[in-house]
Design brief:
81% helix; mainly alpha; 12 helices
């Protein structure tokens, strides 16, 4: 019952946030523009929206969770004094923010229903984008929570999150490509696959792109991933690992929260 009340409190508190409202509006406008001006083809919509998700969701989710946790640090101390377990506090805070952010995200995809007649494979695209959008929120909310548990100053925590996003979204593929170019005479397939699994943004892009005729948009490591695992096993392996990665980050943050001073 206490966990349920904590989750409900966090959701209601989050729904009052102007930043959640702004997030939902930005997503809504982007989806509207993409679908309105597109030809409605599956690959075109999937590629455009996927890259936008990887641009905005990880960065926003990490920054939003870090700021929210820092603003409520005294509330967490007060709740602990009242005898509520750290496990309930962490779960309540995490799930409350998670469901609140999903509310903004789901509002942002409403344009799909306005133009559903225009979109080819409507339910297929909607399922993929919602499923992987939820995965992105879960993973990077966990990353934001984990960063917050190291008692850095707010500016440092925000800087760490921005650096992680910048490296994962912009630099990582170039880094892998440089390795492939400079050490192409060596068998690098296993190393490149490991590096791909270390970056959930890259893995989500790969898992989505191998389902359509989007091979030309794949990175070098993604092409090797498709060559090794194939399409069906590649999707299954990617989704399974992303779920594992998200849970691992969640439990690491929870473990750190149990041991930190409030």
């Amino acid at each position: 019952m206490m966990l349920k009340n904590l989750i409900l409190f966090e959701i209601l508190d989050l729904l009052k946030s102007k930043w959640l409202f702004l997030y939902a509006i930005v997503l809504f406008i982007f989806h509207f523009i993409v679908i309105y001006f597109s030809a409605g083809t599956t690959d075109e919509i999937l590629a455009t929206i996927t890259n936008f998700y990887l641009l905005i969701i990880p960065l926003y989710t990490m920054i939003f969770s870090i700021v929210n946790l820092y603003e409520n640090i005294h509330f967490q101390s007060l709740v602990i004094v009242r005898g509520i377990s750290r496990n309930s506090i962490y779960k309540g805070k995490f799930l409350g923010l998670f469901f609140g952010l999903l509310f903004g995200f789901l509002f942002g995809i409403l344009p799909f229903f306005l133009f559903f007649i225009k979109i080819q494979n409507f339910f297929y695209i909607l399922f993929l984008l919602v499923f992987f959008g939820i995965l992105l929120h879960f993973i990077f909310l966990g990353v934001g929570f984990l960063i917050s548990q190291f008692n850095f100053r707010l500016e440092i925590s925000l800087g760490v999150s921005i650096i992680l996003w910048f490296f994962g979204y912009i630099i990582y593929d170039s880094f892998i490509f440089l390795i492939a170019v400079n050490f192409g005479d060596y068998p690098l397939e296993s190393i490149l696959i490991v590096l791909l699994f270390m970056n959930p943004m890259d893995l989500i892009r790969t898992t989505l792109f191998i389902q359509g005729d989007l091979a030309m948009l794949m990175s070098y490591s993604s092409a090797i991933y498709l060559q090794i695992f194939g399409s069906k096993w590649g999707i299954f392996t990617g989704v399974l690992y992303l779920l594992f990665f998200g849970m691992m980050i969640y439990f690491l943050g929870q473990k750190k929260f149990f041991s930190r001073d409030l």
